[in-house]
Write a structure and sequence with these properties.
- The chain has 280 residues and is an alpha/beta fold.
- The chain contains 11 helices and 11 strands.
- The strands form 4 sheets. A 5-stranded parallel sheet has the order 7-11-10-8-9, sandwiched between helices. It has a two-stranded antiparallel sheet with strand order 1-2. The protein has a two-stranded parallel sheet with strand order 3-4.
- Strand 5, helix 5 and strand 6 form a beta-alpha-beta unit.
- The longest helix is centred in the middle third of the chain and has 14 residues.
- It is elongated, with a radius of gyration of 25 Å.
- The termini are far apart.
């Protein structure tokens, strides 16, 4: 339908003020002018000259019929307001894990989600498809310390490989962590490998390049817990868990590090393991 369509009344050929669905007030630009929202026929006029992405990026008034929010646990109140403005009728699918929040502790989704969003239908993941049961036992102990509102999922399978903890000397900490990761990378039954630590990322990256052949080195990623979020690996070497807990006493980053693996998990430590990781 175009603006020349005889079935479109002149009264309908105008843009309507955009209303902030969080506040109920008209949205203004930096100069104080009310922003107008283009209607369907306006978008149709543009469809031959611009892509959907270009139109959405160029119009502050653009809204989507439905918005999917991933890593929702990390959004701030201002970011929630921004997202709500882009979602007609607050129609959203919100996906997240409070146990992996990286910006301050929040115990419940009710605390995190703005009340202006209204009622939400909540669905909790019941099955852990990533980590095997051996890892799930450790991860669920951490989860219990993070929030009583969080429900531990059940692992769909076991790997047959117990979680390991290797105590080493401080002088050998980085070298032994890299050596273990290289051994995993050289195992043809395993794919990607991660070394996760808050300290020594640079030196361990260099050690990987020096101590592994090109094929094995290409399978290894050295990163911090924050950098590992959203990723998964066949084997994970967590270096000095006590330092991860010291950097994040709420245990979210430790939970992230532990839950990246689909198969093998090893803790390499010179300091005593945090109590929550004590092998039982």
């Amino acid at each position: 339908m175009s603006q020349d369509d005889p079935f479109v009344d002149d009264a309908d050929r105008k843009s309507w003020p955009v209303i902030d669905e969080m506040t109920g007030e008209p949205v203004s630009d930096p100069d104080g002018e009310v922003i107008a929202e283009l209607e369907a026929f306006d978008y149709l006029e543009l469809q031959n000259s611009m892509t959907l992405e270009q139109r959405a990026a160029g119009e502050r008034a653009w809204r989507f019929g439905h918005v999917i929010v991933d890593e929702a646990q990390d959004l701030t109140p201002m970011q929630w307001r921004m997202v709500a403005r882009r979602a007609r009728g607050h129609s959203m699918t919100i996906v997240g894990d409070l146990a992996q929040r990286s910006a301050g502790r929040v115990d419940t989704w009710a605390e995190l989600l703005p009340p202006e969003l209204g009622d939400v239908n909540r669905y909790d993941l019941q099955i852990n498809y990533r980590s095997p049961d051996e890892v799930g036992v450790v991860a669920n102990r951490i989860l219990e310390h993070i929030s009583s509102d969080l429900r531990a999922p059940s692992a769909i399978r076991a790997s047959g490989h117990p979680v390991e903890a290797m105590a080493v000397t401080p002088e050998r900490l980085l070298e032994d962590a890299v050596a273990r990761a290289v051994a995993f990378a050289e195992d043809e039954s395993l794919g990607r490998v991660a070394i996760i630590a808050v300290d020594g990322v640079g030196p361990m990256t260099r050690l990987v390049g020096e101590g592994a052949d090109a094929e094995a080195a290409a399978k290894i990623m050295v990163c911090t817990p924050t950098e590992s979020k959203g990723l998964e690996f066949d084997a994970v070497v967590v270096v000095e868990p006590a330092n991860i807990v010291a950097a994040d006493p709420d245990l979210s980053m430790l939970y992230v590090a532990v839950t990246r693996t689909t198969d093998r998990l090893v803790f390499i430590h010179a300091d005593p393991l945090p109590e929550v990781l004590a092998m039982r």
